[in-house]
Amino acid sequence: MPHCPNFTTLPKIWLLTKLLFPSREGLFSNSTYQKKRKCFGINIFKLCDSTGYTYNMKVYLGKDRQRTAQHVTATHATVIELTRKTEGRGHKLYIDNFFSSPELFDDLLKKQIYCYGNVRPNRRGMPQDLRPKTTKLKRGDIRVRTRADLTSILWRDKRDICKLTNIHSAPAQGNFCNGGGKAIQPQIVVDYNHIWAMWIRVTEWPTVTPSAVAHSSGRKNCSFIC
Question: Measuring CA to CA, which of 13, 16, 51, 143 is 20 to 30 A from 133?
Fold first, then answer.
């Protein structure tokens, strides 16, 4: 039996992301993404530590209506499932924008899991005035909205970047550029860029092997957690 990780002694920084495992097998769960280089394969959601080691993962097997409710999306339910064994320990979770939403962050905060990540500004619960068609920012502009422990920011560099966090303090709002007209990154963005190096390592396929995917049969989850 493989060694089962002890979540009480692990680093308190986790990353949750969605990967596409390249495959052209005739499986019903195959997904296609025409705009990506690896545009055909199997979706895998995985929870990793900052070294890229995978502690829990789930293979996408098609829509599962039984796991969703009116107020909980399928991605929300997936995150709750993958992070169940990290609850109540004050871990920090960095999340892909595929999963991020204010409702998810609020739910995880109740379980003492603190979150941060990119977020799609049109997610349900996001401030209306941060949505793309309602605001136009100049380079260096930062727009900030807070609600209880949750902070959302919209920052403009070469493009608009929207982030959601209950880890950081709310930054100052305004326009911040250096003498050369280059946008000055708020601390939230600096921290994200630091995590990005980990993210690149996490999304490399040696951490998710074909044999791990092969052991997921039927409708069972493929997981390294006991």
Answer: 16
